[in-house]
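Per your request, structure below.
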């Protein structure tokens, strides 16, 4: 156990209040260039870009994880330079996923620690004796940290590695590591690890690009979420990091409460269901009855209000989409002191023949509210109806994004979809709290992954 590493991590986190560790894996291959000078130029410009990125993210993330692709590309000297330039702001973890005999592990570890890394990651599968032990004792001598890898986030990890999780975890713990790398895509492993070793630090990769939702690993018991491409490849990494932090901090507690209340009131079910779009689904979310449960309804509408306030969006009116979006939108509008209107499913066949009930003045911006989104087709009909009446629509907000193309289909029409949670997050919460069996959880997660990005129907 390295008191120095644990203290460093805690001191930096106190200052940033951020549970994000950036995985720094930029796509970069200087060897694709033939000339040594060109390779060096490429290395220097990549190192400069990374320093700029880390300066931009100061205060938004706590740690940086650097793996072999960047070490191969830059060489250890330039990595050392990056660490030295930015070390006041971050702790640095090296991720060689070490898995050799102890002697070789020790030779690698000595260089990595000398370069300035505060901790490194080693596969627990190599075992303690003549494997992890040499690294742990070197780390103790040099006051550095060691993190044990006992499972991984990709689907193939369940073919072999993750089946041995409990044994590997016991090995890493016995070897005296400071913490564990546990995949966010298998959240039950995070919870059982935290329960078994509450004082160890848990770092969870697999959030964002790999599918687990932001904040879900923290909710399961992790101390940090390791996030790579979602931040590093965003058009504005700092804006994305801020957005993720807001998602983690402000909605985290409410999301857990809402998910539990939805399950208790049977608003989320697992089984075989046909959706409005005609698609089949192994789970169903029905929020039409939520106004019948006063506490749940208050929780849901307050979560919309809190999110809208924290985003600081400006709009003139709120439009609810029939059916479930009408009561939710009406109460959100009332709480925000905004005028409300609603959109019918079908046009009236008599009178005004309008799909819209309520007032829109030309040029006003309208926030659309609904309960859930699948492909986005109902929301798009609402967008069209409002635009036909001269209203502007830039945003739509739902409680649950079923992750089946809604974000993309709305974006094509210039509308940003805001959601309080994804189905992945909802089902993870329910699984962790025992409302959904392991088998159903895996079935639903598989379905969500396979049906992502369904095009507008
Ligand atoms: P991304 O958020 O872009 O998917 O990056 C995840 C990072 O976490 C990568 O650096 C990867 O090597 C690492 N990682 C992982 O994805 N799964 C694991 O099980 C262990 C990891 O270290």
């Amino acid at each position: 156990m390295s008191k120095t590493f644990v203290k460093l991590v805690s001191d930096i986190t106190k200052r940033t209040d951020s549970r994000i560790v950036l995985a720094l894996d930029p796509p970069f291959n200087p060897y694709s260039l033939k000339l040594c000078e060109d390779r060096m130029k490429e290395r220097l410009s990549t190192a400069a870009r990374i320093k700029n990125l880390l300066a931009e993210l100061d205060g938004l993330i706590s740690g940086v994880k650097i793996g072999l692709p960047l070490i191969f590309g830059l060489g250890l000297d330039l990595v050392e330079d990056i660490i030295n330039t930015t070390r006041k702001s971050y702790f640095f973890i090296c991720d060689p996923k070490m898995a050799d005999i102890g002697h070789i592990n020790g030779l690698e570890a000595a260089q990595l620690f000398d370069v300035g890394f505060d901790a490194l990651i080693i596969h627990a599968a190599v075992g303690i004796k003549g494997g992890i032990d040499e690294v742990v004792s070197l780390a103790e001598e040099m006051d550095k940290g060691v993190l044990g890898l006992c499972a991984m986030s990709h689907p193939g990890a369940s073919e072999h590695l993750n089946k041995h999780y409990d044994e590997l975890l016991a090995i890493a713990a016995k070897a005296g590591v400071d913490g564990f790398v546990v995949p966010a895509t298998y959240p039950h492993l995070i919870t059982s690890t935290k329960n078994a070793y509450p004082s160890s630090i848990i770092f969870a990769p697999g959030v964002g690009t790999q599918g687990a939702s932001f904040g879900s690993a923290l909710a399961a018991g992790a101390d940090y979420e390791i996030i790579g491409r979602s931040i590093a490849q965003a058009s504005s990494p700092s804006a994305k990091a801020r957005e993720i932090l807001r998602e983690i901090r402000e909605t985290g507690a409410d999301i857990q409460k809402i998910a539990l209340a939805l399950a208790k009131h049977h608003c989320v079910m697992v089984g075989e269901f046909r959706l409005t779009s005609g698609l089949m689904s192994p789970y169903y979310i029905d929020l039409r009855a939520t106004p019948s449960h006063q506490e749940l309804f208050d929780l849901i509408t307050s979560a919309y209000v809190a999110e809208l306030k924290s985003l600081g969006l400006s709009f003139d009116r709120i439009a609810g989409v029939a059916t479930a979006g009408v009561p939710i939108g009406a109460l959100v509008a009332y709480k925000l002191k905004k005028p409300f209107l609603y959109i019918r499913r079908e046009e009236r066949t008599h009178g005004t023949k309008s799909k819209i009930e309520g007032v829109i003045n030309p040029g006003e911006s309208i926030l659309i509210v609904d309960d859930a989104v699948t492909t986005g087709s109902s929301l798009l009909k609402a967008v069209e109806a409002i635009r036909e009446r001269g209203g502007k629509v830039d945003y739509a907000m739902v409680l649950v994004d079923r992750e089946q193309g809604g974000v993309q289909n709305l974006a094509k029409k210039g509308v940003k979809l805001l959601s309080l949670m994804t189905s992945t997050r909802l089902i993870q919460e329910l699984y962790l709290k025992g409302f959904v069996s392991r088998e159903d959880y895996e079935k639903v997660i598989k379905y969500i992954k396979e049906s992502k990005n369904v095009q507008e129907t």
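The mean pLDDT is 92.

Regards,
D.
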